[in-house]
Q: What sequence folds into this?
């Protein structure tokens, strides 16, 4: 694939990947989405894919959602921050949790802050700690927040 994939072709690739449950197509679509300038049309696909367990791109999807920083992704990022995927057993899904938490922090709206506060209460001390750090640094990181309003 080139770095110049047409947005419509990218949407078709996401649709096909989801319809056929093809992990290779997911991988290709996510990789291409990083190079597309306007990714707002990809948000529903990325959010949907983050919930599925039949592919291996959750960390890249969380990173992409962090880059996009859409308030539409708050709920799925919140849920995914505490999910455990079998293929990530080697690191207990902690890097995925951390990426979801960073994505929530970078969205920076009231809803994402509320999600982070809820994550500070998680029974997993590491996840709670990641979220607490983002809350503690909330004001220091305002420049990163895409939807911050005081």
A:
């Amino acid at each position: 694939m080139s770095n110049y994939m047409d947005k419509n072709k990218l949407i078709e690739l996401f649709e096909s990947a989801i319809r056929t449950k093809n992990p290779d197509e997911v991988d290709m679509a996510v990789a291409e989405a990083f190079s597309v300038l306007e990714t707002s049309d990809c948000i529903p696909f990325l959010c949907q894919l983050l919930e599925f367990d039949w592919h291996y791109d959750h960390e890249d999807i969380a990173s992409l959602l962090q880059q996009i920083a859409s308030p539409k992704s708050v709920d799925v990022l919140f849920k995914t921050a505490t999910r455990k995927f079998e293929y990530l057993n080697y690191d207990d899904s902690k890097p995925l949790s951390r990426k979801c938490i960073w994505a929530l922090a970078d969205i920076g709206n009231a809803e994402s802050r509320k999600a982070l506060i809820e994550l500070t209460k998680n029974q997993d001390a590491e996840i709670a700690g990641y979220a607490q750090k983002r809350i503690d640094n909330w004001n220091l990181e305002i420049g990163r927040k895409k939807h911050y309003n005081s």
